[in-house]
Amino acid sequence: QKQVGMIEKENGEMVSNGSSTNGSALESSSKEEKESHEPQKEVDIILNNVVCNFSVRCHLNLKQIAQTGCNVEYHKAMAMLIMKFRRPRCTASIWSSGKVTMTGATTESEAKVGARRCARTLQKLGFNVKFTNYRIVNVLATCTMPFAIKIAEFASAHPRIASYEPELHPGVTYKMKDIRATLKIFSTGSITITAPKVETVQTAVEEAYNLVYDFKNERRPEDLEHHPLAMRKRIRAEAEEDEPLTERKKGRNETSQ
Q1: Which family is annotated (predicted)?
Q2: Residue 202 gets which letter from DSSP?
């Protein structure tokens, strides 16, 4: 009987232990389900500038282009000519050697369309143009993390790759040598990326998110006020409030005339 009682106790203990393990497993599974159901915050990447180069393989007379072309600025001291386009909105820097640099496009397709339109314009002006050696050389993009960043701690944790000099620049400069990307990280959570390709920008943002997440900080409403765009709007609003109505009317009349 004593042996049977011991077995029953052991069985009871085993049953109770099994129920506890099952309960912990259920709790862990429920936690995992909650974590999986939590909405993940997305980071939007905005392309601000796509720079590309191409060559027309012929000598260009910049003075002739300045006299016969439209939307053209000739800089004799710099030995270059600037041609602007509306659709797509981009600017071409043209040299007499036939090298052309396009800036201002926001996508790769816009950059290529603008480059071909520039080549076609030069061809219509009487030059023997051949569209060659086209390539994208630089992409400038910005993104905003869903949290603020402790940039001083981040810079101290990565002293070899990250450089932070608050006297010269308010952000941390972080270089990714493997993908040739440079990041400017600010305490408000905004990041500026400079990379050679659009695909590289996405890779850089993904790597930066994992690096910066350990140094996240709660975002304050005051941080958004120090954003450059917000500062410009605030300065304009203050200037309009300080300016008397008579001066505003005079300025509008002068512009209309």
Answers
A1: Belongs to the TBP family.
A2: H
Weakest-pLDDT range from 44-48, 77-81, 214-218: 214-218
Strand order in the sheet with 172-176: 72-75, 80-85, 90-95, 99-105, 45-55, 132-144, 190-195, 181-185, 172-176, 162-164
Q: How many helices (H) and strands (E) does the chain have?
A: 8, 12
Residues 97, 99, 103, 105: is their CA dihedral positive or negative?
A: positive
What is the end-to-end Cα distance of the chain in Å, rounded?
A: 114
How do residues 59-118 score in pLDDT, each as one tens digit? 999 999 999 999 999 999 999 999 999 989 999 999 999 999 999 999 999 999 999 999
Q: Is 200 helix (H, G, I), strand (E, B) or coil?
A: helix
The two three-digit tokens of residue 39, written as one number = 């909405």
The pLDDT value recorded for residue 218 is 78
Q: Is the pLDDT of residue 6 over 80?
A: no
pTM: 0.68
**The pLDDT value given to residue 238:** 59
6: number of Cβ within 10 Å: 10
Q: Whose CA is closest to 135, among 249, 56, 81, 54?
A: 54
Q: Can you list the alpha helix ranges (DSSP code H) found in the chain?
A: 2-37, 62-68, 108-124, 151-157, 198-212, 221-225, 228-242, 245-256
CB 205 within 8 A of CB 143: yes
